[in-house]
TrEMBL record:
The keyword Iron-sulfur does not apply. This is Alpha/beta hydrolase. Coiled coil: none annotated. It holds the Pfam family Abhydrolase_6. The keyword Hydrolase applies. GO terms for molecular function: hydrolase activity. It comes from the Bacteria. The lineage of its organism: Bacteria, Pseudomonadati, Bacteroidota, Cytophagia, Cytophagales. Keywords: Hydrolase. Belongs to the AB hydrolase superfamily. Residues 20-257 form the AB hydrolase-1 domain. Transmembrane segments: none annotated.
């Protein structure tokens, strides 16, 4: 196994002439996609991986300077594409994974054919007329809680993110994913994720893009989707009538329908 494949625990599934590359959101590893991959593997070649510090990745490859911004994570996406000799990639990114994918497409647009974003947000902080969903102090308090008690934070944050209290098993699965992260790296990645502001980068992305948002999402409210749709030159916005920030887990059928319809168009 090559270094990059080992570093990110890269797995390639399925077959087909088109390649889907999945970019996980914060706190998640590649197992988060398991509700979608069975239906997609018969039509597409699927590439899954873990960010350094998550899942079964090589935690010794973590470089604080490189990963102090989302650009470092975007470089990993480009590295994986080059290592696997990928082209005309359809990138599927969730949450901050969408912004990582956007930055990769800005850096190397020739690699990517389409961008499919689930619950993306370029900035989580409310600022002026922009509504990102959180006051800065709220995020600082959350990060302080993580520093003090990572397991306690994960136990509270997983149900908040999943947003489906009638299905506690979904939050339990996300909690398990959180706990498969290296805590020190996860705390640093959380700071990068929730304090990043990529609003100025959005207009630089010219790859055809699908934005999938949830009607009730405490992490990325509807105003964020409207902001992105107005500024991404080639975006289409779809709002699923569901709750939570992980529709690929809580509403996989609706999510699959949206993704497949866009790819087929």
């Amino acid at each position: 196994m090559t270094y990059i494949r080992k570093r990110h625990d890269v797995h390639v599934l399925g077959s087909g002439s088109r390649t889907l590359l999945f970019v996980n959101g914060f706190g998640c590893d590649q197992t988060i996609w398991h509700y979608l991959t069975p239906a997609l593997s018969g039509q597409f070649r699927l590439v899954l991986f873990d960010h350094v510090g998550a899942g079964m990745s090589d935690v010794t490859a973590y470089e604080p300077a490189k990963y102090s911004s989302l650009e470092g994570y975007a470089q990993d996406v480009v590295d994986i594409c080059r290592e696997l000799d990928l082209s005309n990639v359809t990138l599927v990114g969730h949450s901050v994974g969408a912004m990582i994918g956007m930055l990769a497409a800005i850096a190397e647009p020739a690699l990517f054919e389409q961008l499919l974003f689930l619950c993306p947000s370029p900035c989580y902080v409310n600022e002026g007329s922009y509504h990102g969903g959180f006051e800065r102090q709220d995020i600082q308090d959350m990060l302080a809680f993580m520093d003090q008690d990572f397991v306690g934070w994960a136990d509270e944050f997983a149900p908040f993110v999943m947003g489906n209290p009638d299905q506690p098993a979904l939050a339990a699965g996300l909690l398990h994913s959180f706990c498969r992260n290296d805590p020190t790296i996860a705390k640093r990645f959380a700071r990068v994720t929730f304090l990043s502001d990529n609003r100025a980068d959005v207009g630089r992305c010219h790859t055809p893009c699908l934005l999938v948002q949830c009607a009730r999402d405490l992490i990325a409210p509807l105003e964020v989707g409207s902001f992105l749709a107005a500024r991404l030159p080639t975006a289409r916005l779809i709002t699923l009538p569901v709750s939570g920030h992980c529709p690929h887990v809580s509403a996989p059928t609706e999510t699959l329908e949206a993704l497949e319809a866009y790819m087929a168009a």
